[in-house]
Amino acid sequence: MTIRAYGTAAFSSLRSTQSFETAKANLAALQNQLASGKASTTYSGLGIGGASATLALRTRMTTLDGYAASIADGQLRLRTMETGLEQIAKLASGLTTSLAASASETPVGATNVAVSAQSGFQTIVDILNTNLAGRHLFSGRAADTEPVASASLMLDGDGTRAGLRTLIAERRAADFGGSGLGRLTLATAGTTVTLAEEAAGLPFGIKLASAEPAAGNVTATLGAGPPPAVAVSVAAQPAVGDTVSIGVTLPDGTAKTITLVAGGSTATGTTAFAIGATTADTAANIQVALNTALTGIAAAELPASSAMKAANDFFAATSGSPPPRVAGPPFDTATAQVAGTAADTVIWYAGDSSASPRDTAPVRIGDARTVGIGAQANEPAFQAVLASFAALAADSFPASDATALKRYQALGAAISARLNIPGAQKVADIAAELSVAGATMGEAAGDLKITRAQAEDALAEIENADPTEAAMKLLATQTRLQASYQATSVLQRLSLVNYL
């Protein structure tokens, strides 16, 4: 068997061609690396390990970018909410200050404060209805729902559904009663004066809470009933300055003490009764003093308390639990409450009612890490502010009303107490919780920048070409390719004569 010359020449020629093509491809790749700064323009050019690592790193960076975008959005929402909360807190503080400063105002001045309260109420409603990029910030999970009804609808209703002014009027009538003594009865038999609630379990009016002293010439004893009653008995004539105290509770929970003083002048907040010729006369005088004290309470403190009670009930209501209404008319003799309905009573809040408001708007800030920045307009702090402003805005203090100033003073005291209940949630508490969430997001954003920078460095190690190394390889490849060209050229000129 002979080996044909063309066979070997053909094989040599093929290998030479492939060698040239490979060298040229390497040369082109290196030139591209120098021009683009990348190791390869395709994932296949990075090899199996490099391509896999690159894809993993790019996926990780996309995830980190998603967290960063989520944080940026959350921080924008937080800034908007914190601005609103700061304004609400200032309005509440300003209201308390105005009420304290204007305690001795004329009815005209009191009316001006009420008008100002209506403006503040409108501002608070607008803040709680804040919409940022289609998202209601104080509506919990129901972010697409405006949480709070309009200020005018809440105060005045719409002709079909009753607003707060109507509920306050009904409640005041039911608490005041037909006798004007706050649903209490007062009678004297011999030497004993009896002050009693109209009926057992009556949800309206003034409630008897305590009585003292329980010993001495004049005794005061609280009996559980039913109905509860205080018996004031004159066993013998009291000495000038002896006192009898009866503790009562007003509809909104305010405690008040009626102090009766025997004979002579009395200190502020007390009522004097004359020492009669007989113990029976003294008992009759005690009844007169009690009637005077109760009439004064019913003219001032009771209307204020009724307004606060109605406002508190109104703003504690939800769509599933409408505010209670007085079973009437008539209202002054009503003995029960009925549940309002969405058809006859304004329901002020339409948002979410989660027990954990912050958790209603979670923001993803990292792997398995979230922070809550949700809020609901029906949180206790907001209810307190809304009820306080609305109770004042719903009232009026005309100069023709002799009790206007006292009602204003009593309502101011009730509002101040409502806004400063010890241990109750305040607007500042909500702001503090959101501030902590903001700080957490800020820290997470800083961590994300560091983590992303590390991922970018790792990706650069894989994808980017070292220009110095690429230049050296390019020079070496050019040198080899040039040598190959020269050797091939020599072989192409080789003949048998030259070979011999």
From TrEMBL:
Transmembrane segments: none annotated. One of its GO terms (cellular component) is extracellular region. It comes from the Bacteria. It is found in: Secreted; Bacterial flagellum. The keyword Secreted applies. Coiled coil: none annotated. GO terms for molecular function: structural molecule activity. Residues 428-500 form the Flagellin C-terminal domain. Keywords: Bacterial flagellum, Cell projection, Cilium, Flagellum, Secreted. Residues 14-141 form the Flagellin N-terminal domain. The keyword Secreted applies. Belongs to the bacterial flagellin family. This is Flagellin. It comes from Enterovirga aerilata.
